[in-house]
């Protein structure tokens, strides 16, 4: 009796583990397949002309240079605003903030920023930056919108990284006569830097791939030249992919897959860099 | 020199504090600018018309029900996919997989989280929708089902990472205790580890659902964009239109300050409030659980 019971529960364990393993495979395999599929279908489209040329014949031929440059500008613009602000906010939360209602409010605000739908950021950017501040449909408006969307990612990863620096480092520095800021600047920040950079890249990666927030704040359907100032609208890779896969009839598949490939290469390249920095920093850590 | 240093310290400290408070400012700004453009809706469109079943803005029909049910159907479908796959994968990564496999799986799932939603929508149009159409013999593959499948995939990484953190946070002693009294690893997972991580797992599901409701580009591209009231279970096989997709698809074509423009902001603030409720509830579940465990330990 007892024997069969224990056999049964081991059988249940086997079945259960089998099921969970299948589920995990069911999650992971499609991810790998998506990336490989796009690489295979889009690979043949990639050429020097595709990367460095302008779209021609109603975007059905030629290259996607303006979209690549545009996404680069938007990512850069997002970094300019969100990195200093996000890292400073993380420093505040990890080094200055006390455990009171105000800090809790800040945390709730950050959680909310992280959860707001991307298209709602688009509406907000339209209301504040495009119309109210009169920045127009521009790289500036789009970058500012993306910055606020990116902030929670940067703040929470940077804070986690700052918090992982042992308290003793700070105590020793302060006891040697350093001020609080000197301690942060010379001791805490350098130790936390790899983690902060990882967070920044992951945040910017998200910004680079987003379409909805830039729809009404800075994205252009087609531009015959590159944007000349932050007040110009710009083409962008994700929006371009949306346009050529839904708005342009008889679009050659190869160009669509090629554009998708360049976009995921851009985004996953950033992801890879972040992963490498993080694992290297972990391996080197001595405390 | 000394006073110079104090002055610098003062300015920097102030700047850091201001940055810390900025998150509150941004949430307030977002709320204000949505509200400002959404409020006129209430005077321009009678409430009864907003709760009607017809969305046809060109002829001033602003019934929001089809969009609400559209979002609901797609999100429900996505949840049904994201919960088992998300929790299952989290359990696998946290409890079953050997260390080397963890190191591969975690970045892979993060990679899915990093895939731009427009890429998934693109594949949805070219690969998933035609496949569904043939498989289920539908007039079109661009349906709520296609949206649910892809949205489920988009929500999975959120569920996995939060649930996995929660499972990881369960003290090892709990598991050792269960093993010591003869439980199998499987029994330990079901009876000890998962219940102990319950609040975190719940948070994971809520955040995943929140992610799904707010997703825009994928659903706009693959759900067929038909603002038809979803009333039956079978609606999952027909085209729908979500709230997010409506904003994204129509905002570019409306005149600033028109009724249609205000109604789109009204939908926007509805989405904002939904995400507010979901996220505050999700985080308070975590806070409460933390307090309880502190009480138990003290």
Walkthrough of the structure:
The complex is a heterodimer of chains A (287) and B (298). Chain A is mostly helical and 287 residues long. Helix content of chain A is 76%, strand content 1%. Chain B has one domain (39-297): Orthogonal Bundle (MetI-like fold), CATH 1.10.3720.10. Chain B is 77% helix and 1% strand. Chain B is built from 13 helices and 2 strands, in the order H-H-H-E-E-H-H-H-H-H-H-H-H-H-H. Chain B has a two-stranded antiparallel sheet. The chains are: A mainly alpha (287), B mainly alpha (298). The interface between A and B is large, with 89 and 88 residues.
Q: How does the SSE layout of this entry go?
A:
The complex is a heterodimer of chains A (287) and B (298).
Chain A: H1 2-42, H2 48-52, E1 55-56, E2 61-62, H3 65-96, H4 101-115, H5 118-132, H6 139-163, H7 167-175, H8 180-209, H9 212-215, H10 237-246, H11 253-284
Antiparallel strand pairs in A: 1-2
Helix pairs in contact in A: 1-11, 3-6, 3-8, 3-10, 4-6, 5-6, 6-8, 7-8, 8-11, 10-11
Chain B: H1 2-38, H2 40-44, H3 47-50, E1 55-56, E2 61-62, H4 65-96, H5 99-114, H6 117-136, H7 144-168, H8 172-180, H9 185-196, H10 198-214, H11 217-222, H12 243-250, H13 259-297
Antiparallel strand pairs in B: 1-2
Helix pairs in contact in B: 1-13, 4-7, 4-10, 5-7, 6-7, 7-10, 8-9, 10-13, 12-13
CATH architecture of chain A: Orthogonal Bundle
Query: What pair of chains forms the biggest interface?
Result: A-B, 89 and 88 residues
Would you identify the CATH architecture of chain B? Orthogonal Bundle
Strand order of the largest sheet of chain A: 1-2
Number of domains of chain A: 1
Q: Report the CATH topology name of chain B.
A: MetI-like fold
């Amino acid at each position: 009796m007892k024997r069969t019971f224990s056999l049964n529960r081991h059988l249940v364990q086997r079945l259960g583990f089998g099921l969970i393993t299948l589920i995990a495979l069911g999650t992971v395999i499609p991810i790998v397949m998506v990336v490989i599929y796009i690489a295979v279908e889009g690979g043949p489209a990639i050429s020097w002309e595709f990367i460095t040329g302008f779209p021609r014949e109603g975007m059905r031929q030629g290259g996607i240079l303006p979209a690549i440059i545009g996404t680069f500008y938007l990512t850069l613009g997002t970094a300019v605003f969100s990195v200093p602000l996000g890292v400073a906010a993380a420093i505040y939360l990890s080094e200055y903030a006390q455990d009171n209602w105000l800090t809790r409010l800040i945390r709730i605000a950050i959680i909310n920023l992280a959860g707001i739908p991307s298209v709602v950021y688009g509406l907000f950017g339209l209301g504040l930056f495009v119309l109210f501040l009169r920045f127009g449909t521009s790289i500036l408006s789009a970058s500012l919108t993306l910055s606020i969307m990116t902030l929670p990612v940067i703040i929470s990863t940077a804070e986690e990284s700052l918090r992982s620096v042992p308290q003793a480092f700070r105590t020793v520095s302060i006891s040697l006569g350093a001020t609080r800021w000197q301690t942060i600047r010379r001791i805490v920040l350098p130790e936390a830097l790899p983690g902060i950079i990882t967070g920044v890249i992951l945040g910017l990666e998200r910004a680079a791939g987003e379409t909805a927030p830039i729809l009404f704040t800075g994205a252009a359907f087609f531009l015959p030249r590159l944007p000349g100032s932050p007040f110009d609208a710009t083409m962008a890779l994700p929006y371009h992919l949306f346009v050529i896969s839904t708005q342009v009839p008889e679009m050659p598949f190869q160009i669509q897959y090629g554009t998708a490939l360049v976009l995921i290469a851009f985004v996953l390249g950033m992801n890879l860099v972040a992963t490498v920095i993080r694992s290297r920093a972990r391996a080197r850590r001595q405390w | 020199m000394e006073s110079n240093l104090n002055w610098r310290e003062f300015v920097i400290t102030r700047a850091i504090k201001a940055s810390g408070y900025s998150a509150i400012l941004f949430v307030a700004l977002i709320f204000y600018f949505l509200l400002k453009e959404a409020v006129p809706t209430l005077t321009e469109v009678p409430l009864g018309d907003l709760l009607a079943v017809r969305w046809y803005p060109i002829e001033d029909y602003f019934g929001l029900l089809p969009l609400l049910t559209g979002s609901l159907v797609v999100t429900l479908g996505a949840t049904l996919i994201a919960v088992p796959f998300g929790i299952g994968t989290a359990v696998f990564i946290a409890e079953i997989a050997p260390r080397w496999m963890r190191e591969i799986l975690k970045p892979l799932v993060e990679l899915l989280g990093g895939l731009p939603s427009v890429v998934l929508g693109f594949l949805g149009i070219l690969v998933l929708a035609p496949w569904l159409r043939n498989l289920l013999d539908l007039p079109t593959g661009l349906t709520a089902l296609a949206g649910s499948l892809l949205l489920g995939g988009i929500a999975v990484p959120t569920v996995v990472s939060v649930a996995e953190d929660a499972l990881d946070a369960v003290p090892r002693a709990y598991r050792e205790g269960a093993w010591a009294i003869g439980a199998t690893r499987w029994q330990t997972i079901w009876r000890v580890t998962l219940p102990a991580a319950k609040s975190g797992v719940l948070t994971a599901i809520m955040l995943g659902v929140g992610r799904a409701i707010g997703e825009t580009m994928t659903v706009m591209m693959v759900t067929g964009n038909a603002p038809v009231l979803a009333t039956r279970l079978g609606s999952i096989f027909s085209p729908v239109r979500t709230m997010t997709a409506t904003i994204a698809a129509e905002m570019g074509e409306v005149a600033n300050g028109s009724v249609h423009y205000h109604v789109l902001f009204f939908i926007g603030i509805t989405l904002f409030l939904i995400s507010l409720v979901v996220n505050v509830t999700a985080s308070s579940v975590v806070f409460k659980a933390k307090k309880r465990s502190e009480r138990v330990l003290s």
